[in-house]
Design brief:
The complex is a heterodimer of chains A (281) and B (209).
Chain A (H helix, E strand, L loop, with lengths): L1 H7 L3 H17 L10 H11 L6 E7 L5 H17 L3 E6 L5 H10 L12 E6 L4 H9 L1 H4 L26 E6 L5 H12 L2 E6 L4 H9 L3 E6 H14 L8 H35 L1
Helix pairs in contact in A: 1-11, 2-11, 4-10, 6-8, 10-11
Chain B lengths: L3 H18 L4 H38 L5 H21 L6 H33 L5 H16 L2 H6 L3 H10 L1 H25 L13
Helix pairs in contact in B: 2-3, 5-7, 7-8
Classes of the chains: A alpha/beta (281), B mainly alpha (209).
Chain lengths: 281, 209
C-alpha cells in the first residue's frame, strides 16, 4: 500500500528523466523497429509519382520551427521524390515563420540531384493575406508574387514560363502545422480551381483530416513523424534516394515515448484504484 | 454615419462576392480579380493594426504593473528589435533577421517549447488520466490503441494493431469529426449571413454612431 501511495506522489522530475533517457537512447543506438507504409501515405506517393516529368509540384510550407521535427522530413522527402522523377518543385508558404525553413530545403535538397534554382525549383516566399493569396494565385501567380523569395523577377526564371496560375499545377501538397494550412488550400485552390490537394500534418491534427480523405477532397495524407517516415521509406524503396532518413531514425524514439506514457498511465491508474478504498474510508 | 457606411460596404461586397462566384462572365471575373488584390492590401493594413494593438496592450500592462509585466518588456523589445532589423537590413536570406533572429533565436526557442511538451504530457497523463468512469476507460483504451498503432512498436507487438488504430480513426473518429465539421460550417454560414445583413455588428467595435 505504501508503494502505491508513493507512486501517486512521485516527483515529476523522475518522470522527466525517464522520458529523456528513453527518448535519447534510440537516437544513440537505433532499435531498428522498421516502418511500414500505410494506405494514406501510399496514396500521396502515387499521386506525386503520377505527375509527368517536366510538370510542377507545388508544396506549401505552412509550419514553423516548433513543428519542424515532424514536418520538415516530409518536405525533404517530397522534394527528393519530385526531383528523382524530374518533376519541378514550386514552394510557397502561408506561415511567415516557415519562410526560413523552406529556404533551407531549397538550398540543401536540389544539389543532391543536380537541380538548378530557377529551372527545376522556385521558392515564392510568404505573403500576407492567406485566402486572398491562394485565390490570387488561382488567377495569376505573378500578380501575387511579382518576385520570388530571393528577389528575382518571376519572368526571369525559366521554370515559371509554363506556370502562370494554379490550374497549370497538377498537385499541391500543403504541409501544415495548423491554420492557415491544408484547409485553406481545400477551400480555395480545390473548390474554386479544381486543384488536387495532398496534406502533411502533425500527428495531433491527423484526426481532423480524415473526413476530407474519405470524401476524396484530399489526395493522400502524411500524418506526423510516422507519415514522414513512411514517405522516406517509399522514396528509398523505389530507388529514388539513398539519403539519410531523419523521420525513420526518430520513429524508434517516438515508439519508446508512447510506451513510456502508456506505462505511466497504467501505473497511475493501478495506484489510484489500489488506494481509492483507503481514501474513501 | 460611422456605422452605416461600413454596414453598407459589407452588405454590397458580401452579396456581390456571393453572386460573382456563380457568374463566369469576363466582367464578373475582372471584379473578382480586383477584389482579391484589394483583400491583400487590406490584409497588410490589418497586420499594422494588429501590431499597433499589441503595442498598446503591452504598454498598458506595463504602465499598470499588471501580473507578469516584465514579460511585456520582453515582447515590446522583441517587436522593436525585429522591426528595426527588418526595416533596416531587409528580410532576404543572409540578412541579420534571417541569420541572427530566425536561425539563432526563433528556431531553437520554438523547437525547445514544443519539445518540452512531451515531458509535460507524460507527467500530466500520469497524474490526470484516470479511468474513473466507463467513458473515461473507453477513451483510455482508444488512446492506447491509436498511440501504439501509430508507431513501429505497435506493429512489432501485434500485426493487426495498426489496422485497428486506422479503423478507430476512420470510423468512430470520423463520424464525430464530420458532425462537428457540419455544425461549424452551418454556424459559419449563419454568422456570415448575419454579418452581411447587418444583424451581427460586433465587428464594428465600440464607439458612438
Amino acid at each position: 500500500m505504501k508503494l502505491f501511495q508513493y507512486l501517486l506522489r512521485i516527483d515529476r522530475k523522475i518522470i522527466f528523466v525517464a522520458m529523456a533517457v528513453l527518448v535519447m537512447f534510440p537516437l544513440l543506438r537505433p532499435l531498428g523497429l522498421g516502418v511500414s507504409s500505410g494506405p494514406r501515405a501510399r496514396a500521396l506517393f502515387e499521386a506525386v509519382d503520377a505527375i509527368p516529368a517536366g510538370k510542377t509540384l507545388l508544396i506549401s510550407v505552412d509550419f514553423d520551427p516548433s513543428s519542424m521535427p515532424e514536418l520538415y522530413p516530409m518536405l525533404v522527402a517530397l522534394m527528393r521524390h519530385a526531383f528523382a522523377k524530374n518533376v519541378k518543385v514550386l514552394l510557397c508558404g502561408l506561415w511567415v515563420t516557415g519562410a526560413g525553413l523552406a529556404d533551407e530545403a531549397v538550398t540543401t535538397v536540389p544539389p543532391e540531384f543536380g537541380k538548378k534554382y530557377g529551372e527545376d525549383v522556385v521558392y515564392l516566399g510568404w505573403k500576407a493575406g492567406v485566402d486572398a493569396v491562394i485565390l490570387g494565385m488561382g488567377e495569376s501567380i505573378r500578380n501575387v508574387f511579382p518576385t520570388d523569395y530571393y528577389g528575382h523577377s518571376l519572368d526571369s526564371l525559366p521554370m515559371m514560363a509554363e506556370v502562370q496560375k494554379l490550374r497549370d499545377i497538377p498537385l499541391v501538397v500543403a504541409i501544415s502545422a495548423g491554420d492557415p494550412g491544408y484547409r485553406d488550400w481545400l477551400l480555395y485552390a480545390q473548390s474554386r480551381y479544381g486543384m488536387r490537394v495532398g496534406a502533411g500534418v502533425t500527428a495531433v491534427s491527423a484526426a481532423d483530416v480524415y473526413p476530407y480523405l474519405q470524401s476524396g477532397q484530399l489526395t493522400g495524407l502524411l500524418a506526423g513523424m510516422k507519415g514522414g517516415a513512411e514517405y522516406e521509406v517509399m522514396v528509398q524503396k523505389a530507388g529514388y534516394s539513398k539519403a539519410y532518413m531523419p523521420a525513420v531514425a526518430a520513429m524508434d524514439s517516438q515508439s519508446l515515448a508512447h510506451v513510456v506514457i502508456m506505462v505511466l498511465v497504467v501505473i497511475g491508474n493501478v495506484a489510484f484504484f489500489a488506494t481509492r478504498k483507503r481514501r474513501e474510508a | 454615419m460611422k456605422r452605416n457606411i461600413p454596414l453598407i460596404i459589407c452588405l454590397v461586397m458580401g452579396v456581390m462576392m456571393m453572386v460573382q462566384f456563380f457568374v463566369p462572365h469576363p466582367v464578373s471575373v475582372a471584379v473578382y480579380e480586383l477584389s482579391t488584390k484589394w483583400i491583400r492590401i487590406v490584409a497588410a493594413f490589418a497586420l499594422v493594426l494588429g501590431v499597433g494593438s499589441l503595442i498598446m496592450y503591452h504598454t498598458d500592462r506595463l504602465r499598470r504593473r499588471r501580473t507578469g509585466w516584465p514579460y511585456s518588456i520582453v515582447t515590446l523589445v522583441a517587436v522593436a528589435v525585429t522591426t528595426v532589423i527588418g526595416l533596416g537590413w531587409g528580410v532576404r536570406p543572409g540578412s541579420p533577421l534571417q541569420n541572427v533572429l530566425f536561425q539563432n533565436f526563433l528556431v531553437p526557442l520554438n523547437a525547445s517549447m514544443f519539445a518540452i511538451l512531451a515531458f509535460y504530457m507524460a507527467s500530466a497523463a500520469y497524474r490526470a488520466f484516470r479511468a474513473r468512469t466507463k467513458e473515461a476507460a473507453l477513451l483510455l483504451v482508444a488512446a492506447f490503441v491509436v498511440m501504439l498503432g501509430m508507431v513501429p512498436v505497435g506493429r512489432a507487438l501485434w500485426g493487426k494493431l495498426p489496422e485497428i488504430a486506422e479503423w478507430v480513426l476512420s470510423v468512430p473518429n470520423m463520424a464525430a469529426k464530420r458532425g462537428i465539421l457540419f455544425g461549424v460550417a452551418l454556424g459559419a454560414i449563419a454568422t456570415s449571413l448575419k454579418v452581411i445583413l447587418g444583424i451581427e455588428r460586433g465587428w464594428l467595435g465600440g464607439g458612438k454612431s
